[in-house]
Amino acid sequence: MRLGVFVQTPGHHVAGWRHPDAVADGWPNLPLMKHIAATAERGKFDMFFLGDGFATGYGEHPSTIGKFEPLTLLSALAMTTNRLGLAATGSTTYAEPYHVARSFASLDHLSGGRAAWNVVTTAYSKSAAVFGRQHPPHVERYAMAEEFVEACRILWDSWADDAFVADKKAGLFVRPGSLHVPSFKGKYFAVEGGLNMPRSPQGHPVLIQAGSSGPGQALAARIADVVFTAQNDLDEALAFYRSVKAQVTGFGRAADSGLVMPGVFPVIGRTAGEAREIFAELNRNIDTAQAFTVLSERLGADMSIYPLDEPVPALPETEHLKSRAALLSAMARREKLTLRELYYRVAAARGHLLLIGSAVEIADVLERWFRAGAADGFNVMPPFFPGQFDAFVDQVVPLLQERGFFRADYAGTTLRDHLGLKRPARRP
């Protein structure tokens, strides 16, 4: 089983910051980030994962109003960790391939081969304003992403692995013939000229993709080493897993070269009753405006205009988070949720798997999904930090280790080692 921690501080629950055990002061909080990373490494986690976004405002989720630039933070954490993978989100809609390729290659060198890039197309149109651009349509964003990743891969292969010989006696710093100057021209991006750094320890940083729509799955099947997804029903998770794996093999890749890791939002108590009380306390502290902002973003429509205690209305397809909106609408229909009930679910897990219970109960569900073949691992999304993540590492991880589902120690040094992924050969 693979495990990542999705770090969104002070917490993933929209009211997580108000919990007495949440660290929410002194923001942005580097000591908290260092504590989370140290805890994850102590728990032998595969990776520390940072999402990202560009917009801010009073109604935003408290964990996204203000945040560190991800690669800057991960570069700092590379100095305080030794084995933990370091993953960051980077947009293919509002960036340039050279900048992204250079930044993630730098992180891979700084960390000794622990970098991962979460390839996103940036779903929200409001992000366009801060760049002074028009937000491209959904399908076009994925076409741009495919080109963008291809350009980065070519840049990462600019130099041979043994190019930088630094032979003082011969006066030879780089080996002749070791540079392959990239020449890439696509519809959206063009690159002429090599990356000005040696090939990174992992060859290419690990690639993560989180799209679950049709175009998202297709992109993941072509390029992703890890697929993050939101799934909250075992049967639907099984169908998603099989679909992705079939597409991965359809592109001539081994099935285990694309790992599927659903998000899981665990609320952990010493007993199931205590866990339910923690969740109830979180829900009592919800700021209605912020919760409706999150809900409306996920569904692609202003949900504040609808009655709270009636069934979730049928909504037109959105151009933003297509797969998430469809997932939430399906969950509401399947479980006959009112808008208020969906509001609470989204304020917490945003459509991911919500688990409330003791450590044993949480471990049981993760084992069930893993055994069933619905997941290769999970991206853990605590309601608040650091307390609930500490509880997961101290209580749930030992159970998974005792049952033989999770490592007792790291077997390698790079993130590719942890994930069982091959180092890509340099392309000619």
Which terms summarize this structure?
428 residues; alpha/beta; TIM Barrel; eight-stranded parallel beta barrel; two-stranded antiparallel ribbon; 14 helices; 13 strands
Topology:
Elements: E1 2-7, H1 30-42, E2 47-50, H2 62-65, H3 70-78, E3 85-91, H4 97-111, E4 115-120, H5 138-156, E5 164-167, E6 172-174, E7 183-185, E8 190-192, E9 206-209, H6 214-223, E10 226-229, H7 234-250, E11 259-269, H8 272-284, H9 288-299, H10 322-335, H11 339-348, E12 353-358, H12 359-372, E13 377-380, H13 387-402, H14 415-419
Parallel strand pairs: 1-2, 1-13, 2-3, 3-4, 4-9, 9-10, 10-11, 11-12, 11-13
Antiparallel strand pairs: 5-6, 7-8
Helix pairs in contact: 3-4, 4-5, 5-6, 6-7, 9-11, 12-13
Structure description:
The protein is α/β, with parallel strands linked by helices. It has 14 helices and 13 strands. The chain has helices at 30-42, 62-65, 70-78, 97-111, 138-156, 214-223, 234-250, 272-284, 288-299, 322-335, 339-348, 359-372, 387-402, 415-419, and strands spanning 2-7, 47-50, 85-91, 115-120, 164-167, 172-174, 183-185, 190-192, 206-209, 226-229, 259-269, 353-358, 377-380. The strands form three sheets. It has an eight-stranded parallel barrel with strand order 1-2-3-4-9-10-11-13, surrounded by eight helices. It has a two-stranded antiparallel sheet with strand order 5-6. Strand 9, helix 6 and strand 10 (226-229) form a beta-alpha-beta unit. Helix 3 packs parallel to helix 4 (97-111) and helix 5 runs parallel beside helix 6. The two termini are 34 Å apart.
